[in-house]
Amino acid sequence: MTIPEPVVRPWPEAVVPPPLLAGHLHLWLAHLDTWGDVSWENVLSATEIARTSRYRFSVDRDRSRAGRGLLRTLLAEYLGTTPAEVAIETDRFGKPHLAGASSAAPIAFNLSGSAHLAIFAFTKGAAVGVDIEAFAMAPGSAGKPPPRDVRAIAARFAADEAALFQGLSAADATAAFLRIWTCKEACLKCHGTGLQTPLDEIPITFLDDTRGLGRLAGDCFTTRSYAPVAGSIATVAIAGQGMPEPQCWTLVR
Ligand SMILES: CC(C)(COP(=O)(O)OP(=O)(O)OC[C@H]1O[C@@H](n2cnc3c(N)ncnc32)[C@H](O)[C@@H]1OP(=O)(O)O)[C@@H](O)C(=O)NCCC(=O)NCCS
Q1: How many structural domains does the chain have?
Q2: Residues spanned by the domain of 93
Q3: Cα(27) to centroid(ligand 1), Å
Q4: pLDDT band at residue 246 using 50, 70 and 90 as cut-offs
Q5: Does any domain span residue 1?
Q6: Cα distances (Å, whole numbers) of residue 128 to 33, 186, 189
Q7: Is residue 7 part of a domain?
Q8: pLDDT score at 35
Q9: Which of 5, 28, 177, 186 has the greatest number of CB atoms lying within 10 Å of its CB?
Q10: Ligand 1: residue whose CA is nearest its atom 3
């Protein structure tokens, strides 16, 4: 049995978000290298500058600064403030949330980066989690090298998920792995514990090529997966059963 994959469908380009109303779920994709010439030094906090300075390669530093800078830029649009004034704190598991004056608006958000791509999710009220994985489709193209031995990692999934990988071709195993992986990670980032929670504790049920459900103890999460760029898979998760229709854009300068 193969796991259905979302078809590649680019998201429309936009510069500024529309208002985030109750019940809305906004997703933004960014090609981080588009902002490669921006320093973000006047936008990021001292902590963000210090943390992103630790990268060995400047390309990784610039991408991670752009990710944080764009997160602040989008939050500032939603909040009606400036990117530098957005107050962000992280909890004990590292999940970021609005703080101080910024937390008066009940906006929940999450972000994920993979190579040159980042995805940002925003909701009002409900907790949200996102994950993106971007792989080079051909030698020399943008993205990480595809994972080599997905079956070894899939052995840490729930037993019936790991069993799905028996008999799959390498290409089908990789595609199935990425869909399950991004769903698990999005759910665990929505939950807030991230990969501190063992991967076999959150089995995923696929409803169709884009929709799924994750269950963790007594909690349930709804997932929606996308392929906004060839070689990428992105999944958003929100708590509970059912999800508003996400509005999706590609952020441009
Ligand atoms: C959260 C986690 C799954 C991220 O995995 P990843 O694939 O490396 O990274 P992604 O690009 O998908 O996501 C990174 C973003 O997730 C967010 N994040 C971090 N921890 C998070 C958590 N527990 N829940 C939700 N989101 C989290 C951050 O905003 C981070 O972006 P930033 O580094 O620019 O701040 C992973 O770091 C994890 O499981 N951590 C476990 C919690 C933990 O041990 N925390 C220790 C630090 S306090």
Answers
A1: 1
A2: 13-251
A3: 18
A4: very high
A5: no
A6: 25, 8, 7
A7: no
A8: 97
A9: 186
A10: 194
Q: Could you tell me if residue 3 is inside a domain?
A: no
For position 204, what pLDDT does the model report?
97
Pocket probe for ligand 1: among 65, 112, 114, 187, the residue whose CB has the most ligand atoms within 8 Å is 112
Higher pLDDT, 166 or 216: 216
Helix (H, G, I), strand (E, B) or coil at 16: coil
Q: Is residue 139 part of a domain?
A: yes
**64 CA distance to ligand 1 middle (Å):** 13
When pLDDT is averaged across residues 213-229 and rounded to a whole number, the result is: 96
Nearest atom in ligand 1 to 113's CA? 11
Q: What's the CATH number where 19 sits?
A: 3.90.470.20
How many angstroms is it from 60 CA to the middle of ligand 1? 16
Judge contact between 233 and 178, C-beta under 8 A.
yes
Whole-number Å distance, alpha carbon 132 to ligand 1 midpoint, is 12
Question: How many A from CA of 138 to the centre of ligand 1?
Answer: 28
Q: Return the beta strands (E) in the chain as ranges.
A: 13-14, 25-31, 88-90, 96-98, 107-114, 117-124, 128-134, 204-206, 211-216, 219-226, 232-239, 247-251
Q: Which residue has the higher pLDDT, 164 or 146?
A: 164
* Three-class DSSP category at 232: strand
Residue 138 pLDDT exceeds 70: no
Does residue 121 contact residue 130 with C-beta atoms inside 8 Å?
yes
Residues touching ligand 1 (Cβ under 6 Å) are 64, 67-68, 93-96, 110-113, 129, 131, 185, 189, 192, 194-196
Output the CA 95–ligand 1 centroid distance in Å.
Answer: 6
Q: Give tens-digit pLDDT for 149-158.
A: 889 999 999 9
pLDDT, one tens digit per residue, over 73-110 is 999 999 999 999 999 999 999 999 999 988 988 999 99
